[in-house]
Amino acid sequence: MSNTVAIVGSGHTKFGRLEDNLEALIVAATREAVEESGLAPEQIDAVFLGHFNSGMVTDGFASSLIHQAYPELRFKPAMRAENACASGSAAIHAGMNTILAGKAQTVLVVGAEKMTHRPTADVTTALAGAGYQNDDDEKTLSFPQVFGVAAQQYAERYASPLDAMAHIAAKNHHNAMRNPLAHMQKAFSFEACSQVSDKNPEIAPPLRLTDCSLVTDGAAAIVLTAGNNAANFQNAARFRSAVHVSDFLPMGRRDFVAFEGPERAFAMALEQAGVALDDIDFAEVHDCFTIAELLTYEAMGLAPKGQGARAIEDGSVYRDGRLPVNLSGGLKAKGHPVGATGVSMHAIAYRQLTGRAGELQLPNAKLGLIFNMGGAAVANYVSVLEA
To answer: Catalytic annotation on 85?
Structure first.
C-alpha cells in the first residue's frame, strides 16, 4: 500500500459561456488528462466525478458520463462526490482515499458543471441550496448576500474591507489576462472595481458586481496514482498533504468572519506537509467573492486578523510578491463552474509545478498551496503539492 499520491496528468476545458453540454465537457477533460498522462484508458482503475448540480441540469446520475470518453472505461467503478462548491476536492479526496486504501493504483478525477444555460435567478437559487435551510433567516440568503454579511461584519469589527476587495478583483482580472482558459480575459482597474456605477452596481451591499465570481461552464480532470508508481510518468507532482475540515452549516452557530474552518485546515495542511507558509511558492484559493480571498489571507497566516489588506499593500500576493495568489485569475476571473473548481485548482497547480503553465509559469515553483471551500466556510479543503 502506498502512503502517498501524485498527480500525473491533467485536463482542462476553456471556462466560460459554452455551447457544450455536461457530457461533452466531461469527455473533453477526461481525454486530455488521460492523454497527457500517457496511460492507456484501460489502466485507469476507477473514476470519480465532482458535480454539484442542485437542479441546474437534468443529469441526476452523471458519474458514468466519464465512461463516454473511452469504451475501455466500461465497467470501471464510478461515483459522484458532492460537497457544494468543494465538490471537486471531495472527488479528489475520494480518489486519493481509494489509492491509499490499496483498492486502486491509478484513478481519474473529473470536476464539471454546466450553469450558463439557466437564468441567473435560477442559478442563484440552486447555489443557495448549499446554505442552511432550517433557519427562517438563513434560508432566504443568496450567497452574494451571505458574503455581503461577511463584509459588513468585517467592517464592524475591524475596518472597511472595500478598497482591499477592489484591489483583489483588479489583481485577479489582471492575472487572468495570462490565462487562455479563463472565462473573462479583461483587465479592470482598481478605480473601476471600487466605484459603484451602472457597470458595477451593488449586488448584495456592500458587494459590488466586481466582487462576485462568474457563473461559468467548464470541466477539469486529473489523473492520480500511488506515489510509488509516480516515477513511471514524465510529469508528477505529489501531495505533501491534503486536509478536509468541515464546520457547522448554520452561520448562527459560529463566527463567520473568524474563518475558523479554513484557518484550521491551513494549519493542519502545513503541519502535515512539514513546511511553513514562507516555503510556499504560490497559492490558488477560493475567491468566490473578494471578501473570501481577503479572509483567506488571514486564515492562512499571511496577515494578522483584521489586517488582510496588508498582503495587498505590501505586494505579497501579486505575481512578483512573496506568495502570489490566484495567478490563474481565481474564481473571480477564471470562473466558477462549481463542481469543476477544486479540480481546476489542482490541475493548474500541477501544471505550474511541472513547468507547463504557459504564461502563468513562475520560475522554479516547487510548492503550491490550494484552498477550495464549500458553502460559507463549511467544507474546507487545503492541499500542499510538491514538484
So the answer is: yes
**In terms of C-beta density within 10 A (0-12 exposed, 13-18 middle, 19 or more buried), how is residue 268 classed?**
middle
Cis peptide leading into residue 71 (ω within 30°)? no
Distances (CA, A) of 337 to 21, 239, 259, 318, 332: 13, 24, 23, 24, 11
> pLDDT tens, 99-140?
999 999 999 999 999 999 999 999 999 999 999 999 999 999
* pLDDT tens, position by position, 145-198: 999 999 999 999 999 999 999 999 999 999 999 999 999 999 999 999 999 999
Provide the whole-model pTM: 0.98
Name residue 217's beta-bridge partners. Answer: 16
Looking at 12, 51, 67, 85, which residue is catalytic?
85
pLDDT digits (tens, 9 = 90+) for 290-306: 999 999 999 999 999 99
Cα–Cα dist 68/95, whole Å: 19
Contacts of 21 (CB under 8 A, 6+ apart): 57, 114
Residues contacting 183, CB < 8 A, separation 6+ = 15, 16, 17, 176, 214, 216, 218, 333, 334, 335
CA distance 236 to 227: 9
Active-site option among 51, 167, 336, 346? 336
Beta bridge partners of 111: 50, 220
- How many angstroms separate the Cα of 369 from the Cα of each of 159, 210, 346, 374? 28, 25, 9, 17
Task: Tell me the HSE value of 133 on the side-chain side, using a 13 A CA sphere.
Answer: 6
> Can 336 be counted among the known catalytic residues?
yes
